[in-house]
Specification:
Elements lengths: L5 E7 L2 H9 L4 E9 L8 H5 L6 E8 L6 H10 L8 E2 L2 E2 L5 E5 L2 H17 L9 E4 L3 E3 L7 H14 L3
Parallel strand pairs: 6-7
Antiparallel strand pairs: 1-3, 1-6, 2-3, 2-8, 4-5
Length: 165
């Protein structure tokens, strides 16, 4: 990672598709998926799935602010999930799938609140945004098989097609 990168952390339901979306953004230098916002140290996927650790599935985004702004990343975040759905995204239900922005600076916090206010006032959504906005705390990297899941899955499916499976 270059010296001129910043971090952003977002929870928007299952982290697989959200990570994939951020990986497509010009200026994003690295992504990883993991767990944040909970009270149990060193959780794993099985623990987080119980909903008892308090963690959300999140994507940690490293980005070059000279290429992509934090507000542009927030635009991707809003597009990739329903921020009016409390503790649920599609078929995934539980606090681990909540909509959350874990900010890394006072500026990120300010921008996050401003975008929520702007979106709520715009009438874009038929219900108020329920996205949690909280200071980024400990981040625990998810297991390797979750990292870049869609890219790995695409390679696996392509290899199986070539082998006749």
């Amino acid at each position: 990672m270059t010296q001129n990168t910043e971090q952003a952390t977002f929870g928007a339901g299952c982290f697989w598709h959200v990570e994939h979306a951020f990986r497509q953004v010009r200026g994003v230098t690295h992504t990883s998926v993991g767990y944040s916002g909970g009270h149990v140290p060193n959780p794993n996927y099985r623990m987080v799935c119980t909903g008892e650790t308090g963690h959300a599935e999140v994507v940690r985004v490293h980005y070059d602010p000279n290429v992509v702004s934090y507000e542009e990343l927030l635009n991707v975040f809003w597009q990739e999930h329903d921020p009016t759905s409390l503790n649920r995204q599609g078929p995934d239900v539980g606090t681990q799938y909540r909509s959350a922005i874990f900010y890394h600076s006072p500026e990120q916090e300010r921008i996050a609140h401003e975008t929520v206010d702007r979106l709520n006032q715009s009438g874009k959504y038929s219900a108020p945004i329920v996205t949690e906005i909280a200071e980024a705390g400990p981040y625990y990297l998810a297991e390797d098989y979750h990292q870049q899941y869609f890219d790995k899955r695409r390679r696996f499916m392509g290899a199986n097609r070539e082998q006749g499976f």
